[in-house]
Amino acid sequence: MRKATMLKTFAAVVVAVSSVGCSLAAGSSASTARCLDGRQAALKAGGFSGPLLCDGPRASFKLAGTIRGTKQSYLAYDYRYQFMPEGGNVLHGGQRVLVLTSEGRYVGQYALTPPPPLDVAVNDVAIVISIGGDPKGTIEFKDGPPPEAFVDGDKLTFFK
After folding, report:
1. Count of structural domains, the chain
2. 135-145 pLDDT, tens digit each
3. Which of 52, 98, 117, 131 is least crowded, fewest Cβ atoms below 10 Å from its Cβ?
4. What's the rounded Cα separation, in Å, for the pair 24 and 16?
5. 89 in the same domain as 57
């Protein structure tokens, strides 16, 4: 009798733990979908080089807008991040403009200069970079992302 009761109790605990595990996994995948606007898999598949940090106190990933090219539309994201490398003593960080096709395929990125952070916006066919409303440069997408652009006197190179 005691053995049967213990088996029933064990079975009930296994079911309870399993359902808690399933609900935690479901919550985990929901937060993963929100991480980097749900673009994490596309960035990895497209060969993104850089840290993939979810939104939080030291990272943000915001859609700046849609660029309407003649042959293709693109999504421009303003990605800002800071992190402490494993075993490191100095905070690392950066700001990048990430470019994806309107279908969500990662194409490449521009690394922006160190602080102060730049404002990133889109005006139909270009990415507009400014600081507090003061224009610093424009990245025009005539036939797609240009391989190079100049912002505030700095040469930006398009890379993965």
Report:
1. 2
2. 999 999 988 99
3. 131
4. 12
5. yes
